Amino acid sequence: MNRALNFNAGPAALPEAVLKEAEKNWLDFNGTGMAVMELSHRSKEYQAVHDKSISLLKKLLSIPDDYEVLFIQGGASLQFSMVPMNLLSKGQTAQYVLSGSWSEKALKEANKIGKTFIAASSKDQKYRFIPEYNEDGDLDNAAYLHITSNNTIYGTQWHSFPSNEKTPLIADMSSDILSRPLDMSNFDLIYAGAQKNLGPSGVTVVIIRKELLEKSSDELPSMLNYNTYAKNNSLYNTPPTLAIYLLTLVLEWADKEGGLEQIEKMNEEKAKILYDVIDESDGFYLGHALKDSRSRMNVTFNLHNEEASKDFLHQAKEAGFVGLGGHRSIGGCRASIYNAVPAEHVQKLAEFMKAFKNKN
Ligand code: PMP
């Protein structure tokens, strides 16, 4: 069977080896005579999967001992609310850097909980770059600074992070977690929905500095309090067992690929293939992101006019490329090239782009 040339933004391509391994175990997981999703979440067989997932995340992301890894449902979108509910106290201000629609959504939810402040924004420049964050402007009573490390819709990515120890740094890493080595000590909390680099949808990974757990009020509903997850190894209630099993397989795959240094190298090479086509096209393809802010996960571009973009997308679809349309909010074209998208597929897209240009 031919695997699709899948450039979806999320849910997105998973490593073929992971899907095959899951298929092998589909009816009978480790000789239990049951599928993973038929096991009790209190069984020792499931517990082993759960614990392995946490220990592999710790290994791959080099997470120090003073952090907890939590599995929560509700997507990254629920974290837009849980972050301020747990960490934004009365009298404090939460700072948000606006670098795209997902940061705006995070800010919108925080505004319902407490006081916020826009620390930087590139909105009036169509989010073409990561805005400059002025650390001098840091407020004394800031609860945290929230950033979006990769902007899935606009195709921009932070390449270095603010490092002000005074203010806890929180990052939505939904679309670039596991794509490059991480210095976790720079961050106090990161979160990521799994459905891009980590696995299928259904589980959100939250990594939080233990010290921060003291801030959550006991008045919060249990399922919205980080402590409920931290105290119960994310097994207070039934976790999304199938999603966590697939996450474990993806993490094993990433480990076998050589870890995040190796994965970063592959991602740099894949992104370069497409950005080179854009840069060498004499303006036929126009990248949306400014060069310094370009994402290695989502390559966004337009053609010289809207009609040409439509024709490109139509012909790309006919040629078997999936998911190249830009987000419904901005249109244009977007190739999402997460960890699991093979370099050969990226090469095929580059060749298609060059051939399309030559024909037109
Ligand atoms: N943040 C970012 C950066 C995203 O790309 C997305 C989803 N594409 C979200 C948040 C929302 O994630 P979810 O659908 O898991 O709530």
From TrEMBL:
It is an enzyme of class 2 (transferase). Keywords: Amino-acid biosynthesis, Aminotransferase, Cytoplasm, Pyridoxal phosphate, Serine biosynthesis, Transferase. The modification N6-(pyridoxal phosphate)lysine is found at K196. The keyword Transferase applies. One of its GO terms (molecular function) is pyridoxal phosphate binding. Pathway: Amino-acid biosynthesis; L-serine biosynthesis; L-serine from 3-phospho-D-glycerate: step 2/3. It comes from the Bacteria. Binds 1 pyridoxal phosphate per subunit. It is found in: Cytoplasm. Pyridoxal 5'-phosphate binds at A76, S77, W102, T152, D172, Q195, N237, T238. Its main location: cytoplasm. Its EC number is 2.6.1.52. SUPFAM superfamilies: PLP-dependent transferases. L-glutamate binds at R42. Its cofactor is pyridoxal 5'-phosphate. One of its GO terms (cellular component) is cytoplasm. InterPro entries: Aminotrans_V_dom, Aminotrans_V_PyrdxlP_BS, Pser_aminoTfrase, PyrdxlP-dep_Trfase, PyrdxlP-dep_Trfase_major, PyrdxlP-dep_Trfase_small. PROSITE patterns: AA_TRANSFER_CLASS_5. It catalyses: O-phospho-L-serine + 2-oxoglutarate = 3-phosphooxypyruvate + L-glutamate; 4-(phosphooxy)-L-threonine + 2-oxoglutarate = (R)-3-hydroxy-2-oxo-4-phosphooxybutanoate + L-glutamate. It holds the Pfam family Aminotran_5. Belongs to the class-V pyridoxal-phosphate-dependent aminotransferase family. SerC subfamily. Homodimer. Catalyzes the reversible conversion of 3-phosphohydroxypyruvate to phosphoserine and of 3-hydroxy-2-oxo-4-phosphonooxybutanoate to phosphohydroxythreonine. NCBIfam families: PRK05355.1 (NF003764), serC_1 (TIGR01364). HAMAP family: SerC_aminotrans_5. This is Phosphoserine aminotransferase. It comes from Cytobacillus oceanisediminis. The lineage of its organism: Bacteria, Bacillati, Bacillota, Bacilli, Bacillales.
